[in-house]
Amino acid sequence: MRKIADCRETPSVVNCTLTITGEENEVVRAAAEHAVSVHGHEDTEDLREMIRGSLKDERSSTATG
Fold first, then answer.
1. CA distance 5 to 54
2. What is the pTM of this model?
3. Of 41, 45, 42, 43, which Cα lies nearest the Cα of 53?
4. InterPro entries attached here (predicted)?
5. Using CA atoms, how far apart are residues 21 and 64, in angstroms rounded to an integer?
6. CA 20, CA 50: separation in Å to the nearest integer?
7. Which residue in 65, 46, 59, 62 sits closest to 19, CA to CA?
8. d(CA 48, CA 6)
Protein backbone atom coordinates (compact mmCIF):
# COMPACT_ATOMS: atom_id res chain seq x y z
CA MET A 1 0.00 0.00 0.00
CA ARG A 2 1.22 3.49 -0.84
CA LYS A 3 2.08 5.80 2.06
CA ILE A 4 1.71 9.54 2.67
CA ALA A 5 3.95 11.96 4.56
CA ASP A 6 2.21 15.30 5.14
CA CYS A 7 4.28 18.22 6.44
CA ARG A 8 1.13 20.00 7.60
CA GLU A 9 0.90 17.44 10.42
CA THR A 10 4.27 18.50 11.85
CA PRO A 11 4.44 22.04 13.24
CA SER A 12 7.20 24.16 11.71
CA VAL A 13 8.18 27.80 11.50
CA VAL A 14 7.81 27.77 7.71
CA ASN A 15 4.23 26.40 7.73
CA CYS A 16 5.17 23.82 5.12
CA THR A 17 2.32 22.23 3.14
CA LEU A 18 4.26 19.58 1.21
CA THR A 19 2.70 16.12 0.89
CA ILE A 20 4.73 13.17 -0.40
CA THR A 21 3.04 9.97 -1.62
CA GLY A 22 4.54 6.71 -2.83
CA GLU A 23 5.95 3.40 -1.69
CA GLU A 24 7.12 3.50 1.94
CA ASN A 25 10.87 3.51 1.29
CA GLU A 26 10.52 6.19 -1.40
CA VAL A 27 8.47 8.42 0.89
CA VAL A 28 10.86 8.03 3.83
CA ARG A 29 13.84 8.87 1.61
CA ALA A 30 12.14 11.89 0.00
CA ALA A 31 10.75 13.16 3.31
CA ALA A 32 14.18 12.89 4.94
CA GLU A 33 15.77 14.83 2.08
CA HIS A 34 13.04 17.45 2.40
CA ALA A 35 13.49 17.66 6.19
CA VAL A 36 17.20 18.30 5.68
CA SER A 37 17.02 20.77 2.81
CA VAL A 38 13.98 22.78 3.92
CA HIS A 39 13.71 22.33 7.67
CA GLY A 40 17.40 22.08 8.59
CA HIS A 41 17.27 18.64 10.22
CA GLU A 42 20.16 16.18 10.18
CA ASP A 43 19.60 13.03 8.13
CA THR A 44 19.84 10.40 10.86
CA GLU A 45 18.30 7.00 11.42
CA ASP A 46 16.23 8.56 14.22
CA LEU A 47 14.79 11.11 11.78
CA ARG A 48 13.93 8.39 9.27
CA GLU A 49 12.28 6.27 11.99
CA MET A 50 10.25 9.28 13.12
CA ILE A 51 9.14 9.85 9.52
CA ARG A 52 8.32 6.16 9.07
CA GLY A 53 6.22 6.23 12.24
CA SER A 54 4.22 9.24 11.04
CA LEU A 55 3.27 7.81 7.64
CA LYS A 56 -0.38 7.30 6.81
CA ASP A 57 -1.87 4.85 4.33
CA GLU A 58 -3.01 6.43 1.08
CA ARG A 59 -6.74 6.21 0.58
CA SER A 60 -7.66 5.18 -2.92
CA SER A 61 -9.43 7.95 -4.80
CA THR A 62 -11.29 5.27 -6.77
CA ALA A 63 -12.68 3.50 -3.70
CA THR A 64 -16.42 3.42 -3.33
CA GLY A 65 -18.09 4.12 0.00
1. 7
2. 0.84
3. 45
4. DUF1059
5. 21
6. 15
7. 59
8. 14
